[in-house]
């Protein structure tokens, strides 16, 4: 099994039921959907964001995990406004590696790394989603309400429809 033990243990400890789904090596949520014949809105795309706050707030700069449906792209302007942030950008790959995460495999569980979680509310409509789980060849299918119960994410509109390619 190529899913890291800390992720499996986290799910088991928190009683999150999961199904492991094996697939060919993929790097993006779009490729995952194409490989497994899944609809894009049933896959949670997870990004690590670097967030900076104005000096007048008590919030410190840091990293946030955001989960949105794979048929959307992150709406940085909306996230920035919701958090009251000064600046938002994708975290550099070196930060992901420092956290022990291979780029493209970030699971929607910020609590493992003591990071706050943002979740697009449209994921709640799906019920069960396919999520990346620290592996390029295995993902997990989980119930969105289980992720909510454990991660206690800030829920809002954090994605916008992706432009057609």
Descriptive terms for the model:
eight-stranded mixed β-sheet; two-stranded antiparallel sheet; alpha/beta; YbaK protein; 10 strands; 165 residues
Q: What features would you describe in this structure?
A:
The protein has 165 residues and is an alpha/beta fold. The protein has a single domain (5-160), classed as YbaK/aminoacyl-tRNA synthetase-associated domain (YbaK protein, Alpha-Beta Complex). It is 24% helix and 32% strand. Strands 1, 2, 3, 5, 6, 7, 8 and 9 form an eight-stranded mixed β-sheet that branches. The protein has a two-stranded antiparallel sheet with strand order 4-10. The protein is globular. The mean pLDDT is 91.
Give the domain tally.
1
Approximate shape: globular
CATH class: Alpha Beta
Instruction: Give start-end ranges of low-pLDDT stretches.
Output: none
Give the proportion of residues in helices. Answer: 10-25%
Judging by the overall fold, what is the CATH architecture? Alpha-Beta Complex
- Total helix count? 5
Short précis:
This protein is an alpha/beta fold and 165 residues long.
Write the layout of secondary structure elements.
Blueprint: H1 5-13, E1 18-22, H2 29-36, E2 43-52, E3 62-69, E4 72-74, H3 76-83, E5 87-90, H4 93-98, E6 116-120, E7 128-132, E8 138-143, H5 144-151, E9 154-156, E10 159-161
Parallel strand pairs: 2-7, 3-6, 6-9
Antiparallel strand pairs: 1-8, 2-3, 2-5, 4-10, 7-8
